[in-house]
Amino acid sequence: TVGGWLATRSAGLLSSRYGKFEDLVLSVRGVLGTGERFETPDRPFLGPDLAQLLMGSEGALCTFTAARLRVHPRPEARAFRAFDFQTVERGLAAVRRVLREGLRPAAVHLADPSALAFHAQPLEARARVAAAFLPALFTQVGTRLLSWPRLLGPLARLATRCRLVFVFEGDPGHADAEDRAAAAACLSLGANDLGEGPARAWFQERNDAAFRHARVFRSGALIDTLEVSAPWEHVLDVYQRVRAVMGALAVVLCEFGHATADGCSLSFHFITAGGPGDEVEAKLLSALGEQP
Predict the structure, then answer these.
(1) Strand 77-85 and strand 107-111: pairing?
(2) Fewest C-beta in 10 Å: which of 49, 158, 255, 287?
(3) CA nearest to 60, candidates 39, 25, 22, 30
(4) Per-residue pLDDT reduced to its tens digit, 43-79
């Protein structure tokens, strides 16, 4: 809801083109904890912007009751393109180059090898078999394998292929021109052009990840998410350090998104066998070099 977007300072998958939610807010109305009502002036204006202070406070500072928002026309066309890269480093370099060249994709999504494998869909011909047998198989075998992340970690590192998806939108000529320019930049870095098919599939299924997480829970495993952001000069370092620490405890997946010319977000997913919370905490503290 709009109130939820305000309270959490939300960012959607199309933030690379349109900005985060606070970039779309002109003014807000609400109620303070004292019961006092307030209304901020429409942006832009001179002076401190109270709306920027209140957005993201998650109910601690106020309750939002109304907002005046900036809107964009519905795009006339969308251009989709997916690429495979041999390493995460190359994929990140491609994203950075595309943005530094002034292109404005609506959506940018880079899945590392583990995330690419986790979200891969079975071929249509095998879909019924997979749906019938894979959940039971994972319950019996997968959760046991997750008990040995130190074994799975090296196996996961054997896979290096990552997938980059771009979605460009606007008038048909503009979207097509940006798509071709992005393709040229990616190909110059050794990308394998997969065309629009995988990109359209990702966009169509972009909200399905939570349902896949639910299936992991039902299988008896644990999955949790950590989302952080970093400037470009530190993105790869953050990625490698988190994987180094958490790789001893869980299978680590990472997806990069919300990319701008300054940096991007890293959405980590940790999957491990179920167990008492204090046991997981003790293992985590041990991996961090601290005493439980």
Answers:
(1) unpaired
(2) 158
(3) 30
(4) 988 888 999 999 999 999 999 999 999 999 999 999 9
The string of pLDDT tens digits covering residues 277-286 is: 556 666 666 6
Task: End-to-end CA distance of the chain: give it in Å, rounded.
Answer: 40
Using the structure block, give the residue that is written with the tokens 């807010």: 25
Window from 26-30, 184-188, 203-207 with minimum mean pLDDT:
203-207
Residue 19, classed as helix, strand or coil, is coil
**What does the CA dihedral 97, 100, 104, 106 come to, rounded to 10 degrees?**
50
Q: Which helix (H) or strand (E) holds 277?
A: helix 277-287
Neighbours of 125 (CB within 10 A): 7
Backbone torsions φ then ψ of 4, nearest 5 degrees = -65, -40
Which amino acid appears at position 225 of this protein? T
Distance CA 161, CA 192 (A): 10
If 0-12 CB within 10 Å is exposed, 13-18 middle and 19+ buried, where does residue 91 land?
buried
Q: What H or E segment, with its residue span, contains residue 236?
A: helix 232-246
Q: Give the span between the Cα atoms of 115 and 81, in whole angstroms.
A: 18
Are 64 and 21 within 8 A, CB to CB?
Answer: no
* pTM beyond cutoff 0.85: no
Count helices and strands (H / E) in the chain: 13, 10
Q: Note whether 220 and 139 are within 8 A (CB).
A: yes
DSSP 190-211: T-EEEESHHHHHHHHTTT-HHH
Spatial contact of 161 and 86, defined as CB atoms under 8 Å apart = yes
Closest by CA position to 67, among listed 46, 77, 82, 52: 52
The whole-number pLDDT of residue 292 equals 46
Question: 204-234 pLDDT, tens per residue?
Answer: 988 887 777 777 777 777 888 899 999 999 9
pLDDT at 251: 87
